[in-house]
Known about the structure:
This protein is α/β, with parallel strands linked by helices. It has a domain at 1-124: Leucine-rich repeat, LRR (right-handed beta-alpha superhelix), CATH 3.80.10. It has six helices and 15 strands. The protein has helices at 2-13, 16-20, 26-34, 291-294, 299-302, 329-334; strands spanning 49-51, 69-71, 79-80, 93-95, 103-104, 117-119, 138-140, 162-164, 188-190, 209-211, 233-235, 258-260, 278-280, 315-317, 340-342. The strands form two sheets. A 13-stranded parallel beta sheet has the order 1-2-4-6-7-8-9-10-11-12-13-14-15, with no helix packed on it. Strands 3-5 form a two-stranded parallel sheet. Strand 14, helix 6 and strand 15 form a beta-alpha-beta unit. Residues 1-19 form the signal peptide. Keywords: Disulfide bond, Extracellular matrix, Glycoprotein, Leucine-rich repeat, Repeat, Secreted, Signal. Residues 35-69 form the LRRNT domain. Belongs to the small leucine-rich proteoglycan (SLRP) family. SLRP class II subfamily. This is Keratocan.
Amino acid sequence: MVLLLSLFSxxxxxxxxxxxxxxxxxxxxxxxxxxxxxxxxxPPSFPKAMYCDNKALKHIPTIPPHTWYLYLQNxxxxxxxxxxxxxxxxxxxxxxxxxxxxGMEEGAxxxxxxxxxxxxxxNLLTSVPANLPSSLEQLRLSRNRISKIPPxxxxxLERLTLLELQGNKLQDxxxxxxxxxxxxxxxxxxxxxxxxxxxxxxxxxxxxxLFLDGNAIEKIPSDYFKGLPKVAFIRLNRNKxxxxxxxxxxxxxxxxxxxxxxxxxxxxxxxxxSGLEHLYLDHNKIKSVNGSDICPVSADVLEDYAMERAPKLxxxxxxxxxxxxxxxRELMVCFRLLRSIVI
Length: 343
């Protein structure tokens, strides 16, 4: 091993241009490669990355100081210690998926002031970690055992745009305006496969993608989406929604482009907003479709609508219901841009 490192060093001593090609000073480049832990890989062609995945590691090894991308998935790590990243102040990306992590010691991420992506999926966390760096843009915590979001835990995370909390144990009282405070630029939030029975409260007004599949939600307040003026993609598949739980105009907001309501208990097609482009209603209990009732434009003005002003629906999925062909003529008259219907 010593001989191999010596030959390696000699090779790069006569080829300093290779280090410069990675936008690193030669000394930093060599320190990065020679400082790579024995259980990890630090490819010369990608010197800012350190691969320690699938090594049965129980502790985070010493990280060379110029590491940007750290891959520690599929190990046996139980705790992220306070000094785990103390030497790695340039980290941008940490992947700790599929470990046995139950918590992070206070100050564990204090030195990672440039961290952008943090992956902690498939661990044993019971709470959202505290003291996350303000530089964070994506936080993935899916398939843990999280049942609480401490108040203020997202304070200062103004750059966070993606929050993944799918497959946890969150109940209605965990997702509140207090617990979500601080996420002023969030775009996507995934709360699928939790234990919610009502629509989550306190979501940022910047939310564009809302995923709530696989909960036990039975109804949506009539003014719920007025608090989410930018929401464009809504997934409510596999809940307990019936028509009694959907006020007539609950989805009538101009920003919605895609609405998924598959595998619920609907018996009628809800009113479709004019701007909606994709609608998923498969595997409900719908027996018929009345094009006149669900059309967002009244029949007396429909004939005067130019094509560009017509309802925007292009894709409609209705399979898994009790609907038989043919497709009602009124449906095609209303939704002139409709290109695909699955029955």
